[in-house]
Design brief:
Number of domains of chain A: 2
CATH topology of the largest domain in chain A: Neuraminidase
Strand content of chain B: under 5%
Order of helices and strands of chain B: HHHHHHHHHHHHHHHHHHHHH
Number of strands of chain B: 0
CATH architecture of the largest domain in chain A: 6 Propeller
Largest sheet of chain A: 7 strands, mixed
Number of helices of chain B: 21
Number of strands of chain A: 39
Oligomer: heterodimer
Largest interface: A-B, 28 and 34 residues
Structural class of chain A: mainly beta
Structural class of chain B: mainly alpha
Shape of chain A: globular
Distance between the termini of chain A: 60 Å
Helix content of chain A: under 10%
Radius of gyration of chain B: 22 Å
Shape of chain B: globular
Strand content of chain A: 35-45%
């Protein structure tokens, strides 16, 4: 006999829609009657039990495996793909959709400790209750979760799928992520902004949207070692391209244009690139747009005395230096560097990955050292990010060019700084993978990827163990499991921070809009402050 | 005041119509490789220059005023047909429109093409010059750029369409046409999952839901072209030669499309339409002569009209095998046009009024009087 399993005391049904209840009850009644009749006709000897569709026992009548007895049942199709992932113990629920046709869905997530989470519902969109999810993860920290899914098909049979597991990591991920949210932009932009998301819940709030300052462009946001009250944001308003410095939630504004930024760990220096970016388009072929950025230099902003320095070692006239990243100990600056080429040779433009020693006490630079040769590998190296323990460096690699996110062949590579071994990460996809960021404990890496559809950049989280093994990436979960199915926004430049950005959007917007609140930089020694004229097109946008 | 000024100086004698033609042709010859017929420009030189000044003044008075007008929104009665691709209904809705709006001009050309009437009826609709067909520079707030994107896509300009469609999405906001274009575009690009996102958005619009569901079903069975025949057309028309996309004029876009696929019927007819609108007669006839799409049979009316006009203005230039393909009715009509132009005396306005009445739907009227055409001042042509 087939019948609904009596609801268990711990069953979670909060996301069941009340309007469906009545219809389901009457449908169940009819189904039960039909099944009784059928059972009476087919077999009077059938045991009168109500099977648990998720039980691991041999299938009772009415419960079918997803494969003939000779084969193992297949895995269920779920979206997002959370099979065999490693979950931060403080991450919001992995809400998902069961992509199997059915009239009733039963899902149980259980660990070796605590109460399992169990949902039984008439639709395939699974939303876990937040508190119970947090309890489940908390009690199974460092352990394994087992996921069992069964679906009752329109014929009334329960189909039990092969269970799968996911691991709950011991180490937490930083509580917040700050990212840039915008649609795929080509020649124009109207709406974009920087947002923060609480990773422990689904709360998302704007940090600064461009409609607060006449639809200008919000560019880089860079935090000092994950501190939410110490960061810089570069933006482009109608006639200026200033940078806001936020220090202990106090805002100051520097009227100089800064491209890609990196804080020195002492908080007194800000390395930034001065770019002259030109976006161009292809008539045909898979790559529609690209960036020519072969004339960049690196500069250092001294926070205390508000000066910009252009050290000769990292602003070589016939080379383009870009993508600065300070080592966690502040003794090296990592960056990309390539021979400057004309636009017509742009296809041969390839960055090397370099580092240069720096003595912060004496403000002295050493000799640059090449860590990865673009010319030798016929690859271009971008976006170096050193792990907090200083042992690893993850960077982005493309076949050529200066802007990885536009290249579907963009991949993440790992450089082991002790052995200098370089390897492509196994987490790469056949679409652009780029814009990565380490968590402050070095156990997580967040990055942007277009792997889902080839167009939209979504954020993924991967666990990194002490030996630099990367787990299968999991898509940043959303409260609505179908969220990404209709989302037309890109999420990029993810920066993990330890807490919420507390300075309000209004305060930031006021600082952008108030001309009296400026602090202009001055030159310093060999410095040449960059004062490139503002260009109010998207082609000047470091993060199109 | 400006119009009076023009009127005082625009007296043209009857035989001046040839000079008008010469004026236009001379203008073309400056850009073309075809030399001006020797000696012809010396006849009635003074009226030519007077008329030339009038044309320029009038065009100057009309065009900047037009260009500075805010782009009117797409009229309500054609919004739905345009959105749904209901071309006959769109033509019905635009029957009384002066067609000064960039998007409406493109929409009419597209509708005429889709209904197979473009080479026969283009100048029944378009009587005066305007922005280039595929231009987006006159679009205010990008209104209508989704339709340009859709046209580019069907012409085979996948990358151009993508760029414009995403610009439209950002600047115009989400509209069913742009979602449909992006869905098709990403199927052609081999990115069905991305197409699925746009289809999901499109399904929220009741009028487009059925199409989106059908298209999605086609994707699921790996046969989107069966669900939407447009996909096959786009695939056949795809631009194949890459380069840096700069200076993309309507002419260049359409030529690129024809270079990639000479059988691209839409690109051919649009290029002819564009070159005729730009009064680039030698270019239009070269397009006509070299296209594999019109190798035999009677020429469509407007192509024949252009051919006869070119022969009249440049009798020394051979037109090869094209001339015998001019339909007799068009040849007879041209004879009538010539007689009218030779017979008429009086002001240019009188000449134009008569030409409008008898030949208002011909290329000849557009060619000679288009720059001065004022739709509000003239009734419908008698023969249209």
């Amino acid at each position: 006999m087939i019948g609904p399993k009596p609801r268990q005391p711990h069953a979670r049904t909060q996301n069941r829609r009340p309007d469906v209840e009545g219809a389901r009850s009457s449908r169940r009644l009819w189904l039960a009657c039909g099944c009784l009749l059928l059972a009476g006709v087919r077999s009077v000897a059938s045991p009168a039990v109500q099977p648990d569709p998720l039980s691991g026992r041999a299938s009772p009548p009415g419960v079918r495996e997803t494969a003939p007895p000779s084969e193992a049942p297949r895995l269920p199709r779920i979206a997002p793909d959370y099979l065999e992932v490693v979950i931060p113990p403080n991450l919001a629920p992995l809400n998902l959709t069961i992509q199997e046709p059915g009239i009733e869905y039963h899902l149980r997530v259980s660990g070796s400790r605590g109460q399992p989470l169990e949902l039984r519902q008439s639709h395939p969109h699974v939303r876990f209750p937040l508190r119970e999810w947090q309890e489940l993860l908390g009690t199974n920290r460092g352990g394994t979760l087992r996921w069992n899914i069964a679906v009752r098909n329109p014929a009334g049979e329960w189909i039990r799928y092969a269970p799968f597991e996911s691991r709950v990591a011991e180490e937490e991920i930083d509580r917040y992520i700050v990212f840039r949210r915008l649609r795929p932009l080509f020649s124009y932009y109207k709406h974009l902004g920087i947002y923060q998301r609480n990773l422990e819940t689904f709360e998302e709030k704007p940090v600064l949207r461009n409609d607060t300052f006449e639809h200008g462009c919000v560019n880089c946001h860079t935090f000092l070692q994950g501190a939410p009250d110490r960061f810089a944001i570069n933006f482009r308003a109608r006639s200026v391209t200033p940078t806001l410095l936020i220090d202990s939630n106090r805002i100051s504004r520097i009227d100089t244009k800064m491209g890609y930024l990196s804080w020195h760990p002492n908080g007194k220096l800000l390395a930034f690139s001065a770019n002259t970016i030109t976006q161009f388009f292809h008539l045909a072929g898979p790559a529609n747009r690209d960036i020519y950025d072969a004339r960049a230099d690196l500069n250092i902003f001294h926070v205390d005395d508000r000066t910009v320095e252009k050290p000769a070692a990292i602003a070589v006239p016939d080379r383009s230096e870009n993508w600065p990243c300070w080592a966690p100990d502040g003794r090296h600056l990592y960056y990309s560097s390539a021979p400057a080429v004309d636009f017509r040779d742009e296809r041969s433009f390839r960055y090397d990955l370099l580092r240069i020693p720096y003595d912060p006490d004496r403000n002295r630079w050493g000799e640059p050292e090449t860590l990865f040769s673009g010319a030798e590998h016929h690859l271009s190296a971008h976006q170096p990010r050193v792990s907090p323990d200083g042992r690893y460096l993850v960077f982005t690699v493309t076949d050529s060019g200066s802007f990885p996110v536009f290249r579907s062949n963009s991949d993440l590579f790992l450089l082991r700084l002790d052995t200098r071994e370089v390897e492509a990460l196994p987490i790469n996809s056949n679409q652009a993978d780029s814009w990565h960021c380490w968590s402050s404990n070095g156990r997580w890496l967040v990055f942007g990827s277009k792997r889902l559809d080839g167009v939209f950049t979504r954020l993924l989280i991967t666990h990194v163990d002490p030996a630099a093994r990367f787990s299968k990436p999991l898509l940043l979960p959303q409260e609505d499991p179908t969220y990404y199915d209709t989302c037309l926004d890109n999420f990029n430049v993810p920066e993990l921070v330890r807490g919420p950005v507390q300075i309000s959007e209004e305060e930031l917007a006021r600082a952008v809009n108030a001309p009296g609140n400026r602090t202009g930089p001055t030159g310093r020694e060999s410095s040449t402050p960059d004062r490139a004229p503002d260009r109010s097109t998207v082609s000047d946008n470091p993060y199109p | 005041m400006r119009h009076n000024h023009i009127r005082r100086r625009s007296k043209v004698k009857a035989q001046g119509w040839r000079a008008v033609g010469e004026l236009a042709t001379t203008g073309i010859c400056h850009r073309s490789t075809s030399p001006s017929p020797p000696g012809r420009c010396s006849t009635s030189r003074r009226p030519v220059w007077i008329f030339a000044a009038c044309v320029l003044l009038a065009a100057g008075a009309w065009w900047p005023g037009h260009a500075s007008d805010p782009q009117p929104p797409i009229p309500l009665q054609v919004q739905r047909p345009l959105e749904m691709g209901d071309w006959p209904a769109l033509l019905n809705g635009l029957a009384a429109d002066p067609l000064t709006n960039t998007i409406l001009r493109l929409a009419v050309v597209r509708a005429l093409f889709e209904t197979g009437r473009l080479p026969e009826e283009q100048f029944s609709w378009l009587h005066c010059p305007g922005p280039e067909l595929l231009s987006t520079t006159d679009l205010k707030q990008h209104v209508g750029s989704a339709h340009v994107a859709e046209t580019l896509l069907e012409l085979g300009h996948l990358n151009g369409a993508e760029r414009l469609a995403f610009d439209s999405l950002e600047m115009e906001g989400e509209t069913p046409p742009v979602l449909r274009t992006l869905a098709r575009l990403h199927v052609v690009k081999g990115l069905p999952d991305a197409a699925g996102i746009f289809l999901s958005r499109l399904q929220a619009y009741p009028e487009h839901c059925a199409w989106a569901v059908r298209f999605r079903a086609g994707l699921a069975t790996n046969s989107p072209a069966a669900a939407d025949p447009t996909i096959s057309r786009i695939r056949a028309n795809l631009i194949t030669r890459d380069g840096i996309a700069t200076g993309l004029t309507t002419e260049r876009l359409l030529r690129q499309a024809l270079e990639s696929n000479p059988e691209n019927r839409m690109a051919f007819q649009f290029l002819m339409a564009h070159q005729l609108l730009a009064r680039r007669l030698p270019y239009a006839l070269r397009t006509l002569a070299t296209s594999p799409q019109t190798r035999e049979g009677p020429l469509p009316r407007h192509y024949a009209e252009a051919l006869l006009l070119h022969r009249h203005l440049h009798p020394d230039i051979s037109l090869g095998a094209l001339l015998p393909r001019v339909p007799p009715a068009v040849a007879a009509s041209f004879q009538g046009f010539k007689e009218m132009m030779n017979r008429t005396t009086g002001s240019r306005e009188q000449l134009q009024a008569q030409a409008w009445r008898d030949f208002g739907n011909t290329y000849w009227y557009y060619y000679f009087f288009g720059p001065l055409h004022q739709p509000s001042r003239l009734p419908s042509p008698g023969n249209s």
